[in-house]
Amino acid sequence: MEQIARLSGEGETPMLVALDNQAAGIIAVADIAIEAADVTLISGELTGAVNSIALSKATIRNIKQNMFWAFAYNSLLIPVATGVLFPLFGILLNPMFVAAAMGLSSLTVVGNAVRLRRFQAPISF
User: Which residues contact 63 (CB under 8 A, 6 or more apart)?
Assistant: First the structure.
C-alpha cells in the first residue's frame, strides 16, 4: 500500500499484478503512456493539443521551405561551380565565390529554421 500511495503521489497510475489471486507486483502505467504518446499534455488544459498541432504544422512548413532553398541553391550553383557557364558565356567563377554562395545556402536554411523561435501559439493560457 505504501508503494501504491507513493506512485499515486508522483502522478503515476499504479496497477496491481496478481498471480493465483495473490499480489505479485505493481506496474506504473504513466511512464508507458507518456513514452507511447505522440503528444503528452503536462497540464490539464486540452488547448495544449491545439497548440502542439499548430507548432507541428509550422515545423513541417519550415522543413519544406528549407528543402526548397537547399535544393534551389545546390541545383543552380553546383553546375555554375563546375563551369557550365564557360562554354556558353565564357564565365568562370572564382571557387571562393562559389564557396561563399554555398555558405549562404546554409545560412539561409539555418536562418529560416530560427524563425520557429517566434512561433505564437494560437490559443494562449
Answer: none
